Amino acid sequence: QERAGQPLGSFVVLSGANRSGLGEQPDPSEQPPVPDFCRGYFDVMGQWDPPFNCSSGEFIFCCGTCGFRFCCKFKKTRLDQSTCTNYETPLWMNTGKPPSRIDDPLHDPTRDKTNLIVYIICGVVAVMVLVGIFTKLGLEKAHRPQREHMS
Question: Are 83 and 66 in contact (CB under 8 A)?
C-alpha cells in the first residue's frame, strides 16, 4: 500500500477525486446559482402556459424551447428567453370577426340559381320514386288471383 499521489506501478493513485462524471467542477469561490424564472408563454397549440419558478432540488435552470419549457439542472442547456417571441396572443387566435372579403362585382346573389337546381333534381327523384312504388303496387294487384264471393 502506497500513499495517494505516489506511483503504483504504471498508475498514479489519487485521493479525494470527485467521481460525478459530469465534467463540471464547481468553483468554490463562485456563489451557488439562483433559481431561474420561466416566463409565461403561448405554446405551439396557442394555449397559454403560465410562468413558473425552477426551484425544485437540482432543477433550477429554465430550459427547452420557446414553445415548450421545463426546468433542468445544467446551465449550458439554459434557454435564453429574451430571444422568444411567443409572449403575445398569436394572430391566428384572434377570431373575433371574419377576415374582410373582397366582394366580387360579377357575383349577383339574386341571379344565383344553385339552390333552384338542387330543388329541381330532388323533386324529379321524388316523383320517380313515387311512380315506381305505385307501379309495383298496381302490378301486384293485377297479378293477384281473383277471389270469389261466396254467400
Answer: yes
**Ramachandran sector of residue 81 (left: φ over 0; alpha: ψ -120 to 50; beta: rest):** alpha
Residue ranges covered by each domain of the chain: 37-93, 111-141
For 51-113, give the DSSP string: -EE--BTTB-EEEEETTEEEEES-GGGB--GGG--TTS--GGG--SSPPP-PPPTT--GGG--
Q: Specify the amino acid at residue 63.
A: C
What is the pTM (predicted TM-score) of this model? 0.43
pLDDT tens column, 54-86: 988 889 999 999 999 999 989 899 999 999 998
**Cα torsion for 86, 89, 93, 98, to the nearest 10°?**
-130
- Which residue(s) pair with 41 in the sheet? 49
Grid cell at residue 88: 403575445
Q: Rounded to whole angstroms, what are the CA distances from 62 to 11, 81, 95, 113? A: 42, 9, 32, 61
Q: Is 54 helix (H, G, I), strand (E, B) or coil?
A: coil
* Closest-CA residue to 35 (of 9, 6, 63, 1): 63
Angle ∠(33,35,39) on CA atoms, nearest 5: 135
- Residue 49's H or E segment, with its range, is strand 48-49
> What pLDDT does residue 40 have?
93
